[in-house]
Design brief:
Number of helices: 5
Strand order of the largest sheet: 1-2
Number of strands: 2
Largest sheet: 2 strands, antiparallel
Strand content: under 5%
Distance between the termini: 15 Å
Shape: elongated
Length: 190
């Protein structure tokens, strides 16, 4: 395969993966927005609970993380999911919690430092700016750490194996007798 077609196929595969990540993210975003606004306007209203917007964001984000893990595990990164589900889940949640921290920091700065306390300002700071910055962070860490191709652990079909065996009568086999086979894994999924 030529270098140009190899790069093109890798670029297209990345584009498909980003598209799937975006679709899963949209579903998680819908969960996050709906739960955040429901909680922010009811039990975590700032007139009742001073830190209400922060609590509402934590609850809504945790639920969105669960939705996103399922979607990313079984669809976006399905070829690279790990056989050690618990470890993968913990890594996914750790990255997601760090990403949630980005959204919470944006909300906190907007609401408490800058004094933008309206529902619209809370949504823009946490669900637009924070979510955008967090999504970039999460995609990079999911792709290159949590679901890295070299860490798949065999949850899916094993990678292709290349085997080289010298033919009888060649210089190698006649000098050394029966040479052992050489085998190794070849992973083209990166």
């Amino acid at each position: 395969m030529s270098s140009l077609s190899w790069n093109r196929s890798r670029f297209l595969a990345l584009g498909v993966q980003i598209g799937k990540f975006g679709a899963v993210g949209l579903l998680g975003f819908a969960v996050d927005i709906a739960v955040f606004n429901l909680l922010r306007t009811t039990i975590f209203d700032p007139s009742n609970v001073h830190a209400g917007p922060m609590y509402a964001k934590i609850v809504s984000t945790v639920l969105a993380i669960l939705v996103n893990w399922i979607g990313n595990r079984y669809w976006t990164f399905s070829k690279n999911r790990q056989s050690q589900t618990l470890r993968e889940g913990l890594e996914f949640f750790a990255v997601s919690i760090a990403g949630m921290g980005i959204g919470l920091a944006c909300l906190w700065i907007s609401h408490y430092m800058l004094g933008y306390t309206s529902l619209l300002a809370d949504n823009i700071s946490s669900n637009v700016i924070g979510l955008f910055l967090g999504a970039i962070f999460r995609f990079a860490l999911y792709r290159y750490w949590v679901f890295a191709p070299g860490r798949s652990g065999g949850a899916e079909a094993p990678p292709a194996t290349a085997t080289v065996t010298p033919r009888a009568g060649t210089a190698t086999s006649s000098l050394r007798g029966n040479a052992p086979s050489v085998s190794g894994s070849v992973d083209f999924s990166d």
